[in-house]
# Entry
Amino acid sequence: MPDRPTFSIVIPTRERHRTLEFAIRSVLEQPHDDYELVVMDNFSSPETRQVVDRLANRHLRYVRAPERLTMADNWELGLAQATGEYVFILGDDDALAPDGIELADRLLRDQRVPIISWLKSAYWWPDAIVPWHRDRLYVNLDQSVRIYESRSMLRLYWEWKCDYGPLPGIYNSFVHRDVIARVKAQHGRYFLTMSPDVMSGVVNARFTDRYLLSARGLSLTGNSGSSTGTSFVYGDLSDGAAAMFKRETGHWEDLLNELLVDSPSLEICFAYENLRLKRLFFPDDAAFEFDPATLLRAMAANVNRNPGTRDRIIDDMGRLAARFGLAIPTDAIPPPRTEPPRPVQGPVLQGAQLAINCAQAGVSDACAAARLAHAVLPAWR
# Structure
């Protein structure tokens, strides 16, 4: 391995040694050799270090925080450990695709860009809190690759015409260290808000002209029983991870003061991130203003994301509408589901995804799920 590897993968982790092992394995199984792997331990119990020691490898380095940190601070500390030219943060219940680094290297050779981004397939662990997704792998079947203009994609996100998934976040991208340095030069650090994955997608788009987006995932997202994001959306099923995140995140009270609502709607969290990021990075850009009416319509369109929180989100919309002197957009609220959600299998989303029953396939961890996703996709052209 050269003195400075081309690729750095950082895994921030906290008390998830059971899933961490498989995230690490998914990286160490890469056939491509030009990388380093940094495990950034957020002051966990000894089991985390024991997993790393058991998987000892010349590519693998372990760093432990001196005290318990917020998620953003632990990610920042992990980022500071990365020495590679391109940096990617891998969740500790996620997995890198078996050919993830190889594909990133090939894409870089084809097109020199500051960021290589991708749409992640999704794996729901056996202990996932959502019963109709449990043991399911959703594989993206689209194989397209194209260059996107950063500002145009950021506008689509800001206007609620797409979610943050296609943005070039460090959680779904290899980001050139020069981009990270430009962000840090403005405010002294890279992660500045409570949601580092959303924040990095917006800021990286702000600090680049273009990036490459692959519809084929170079990694997959894992939703384990301790997933913070899943706990936010499905708090009626288990809110422990989300509650802990809120207790430890200093910005949460700011959100309540700003929008006057603590809601299971993801759109509320995104709106708060956007407000913070606008003030930090583009306060005078009139193209990116907060529009509460558009936020309300986005909340309305997604009230069925989790049937268990539908009524609460509609109530939250009422409070938010009153806060800004608006009416609830009742025409944008879809009717409730007539049947409870059930597990799916086979083609979904008009054939754009394949849902696989991992229990039937004998798959029970993210690393094996990444191998399975790789096996059902065509060879990279």
Notes: The radius of gyration is 20 Å. Residues 233 and 266 are 7 Å apart (CA to CA).
